[in-house]
Amino acid sequence: MQEIFYDCATAPSPKRVRMFLAEKDLQPEVRQVDLGSGEHFGDAFRAVNPMSMVPVLQLPDGRAIAEANAICWYLEETYPNPPLLGATPAERALTFSLSQQIEFYLIGAVAESFRNFSKAFPDRAMPGPFKAEQVPALVERGRSRAEQYIAYLNQILTTRKFVAGNSFSMADITAYIGVSFAGRIKIPVREDFTALHDWFERVDDRPSAQL
Question: Of 51, 130, 161, 179, whose CA is between 20 and 30 Å from 121?
């Protein structure tokens, strides 16, 4: 493949794409973007993505796709095997729906809490190029939202092996990143959530999760 993947090894969203690529055994050219130094706000990267965010996948014709879900959708359409969005229209819709839901209710909630208390984001409580002041009240709200969705995710996993059914999919990658991200800011998974713990261990054992 000739695509260029703009990555950041320490950020959660790019890992979603790294795992997706690894599950499909794809190896694009990779360029690391140093978020800590503010490289994503520099002219060179903003020429690729004016929104100053990773991940980004640059196509052979120079066009760039931002946002993890959109990148994974492109990869699925271009490199369909093994399928990670489902084998039928209904499965694809369900998988994508769950992935979007997890991104909003879990990853978004954790990010809301993290970005509103971290000293690294005093005037950038929202990702991207636009300034946003921190709102302390959103720290606990984000934690509460994440804890409630983690409980819901455990409930889902009591009825099936993987998030969207019996096959590993993009929904599992999104959920794995969300639960891992929550752990990084000390939002715990209760010990009695055995279905979620068992699922997490299965995903964590996959080679793609080690990247």
Answer: 179
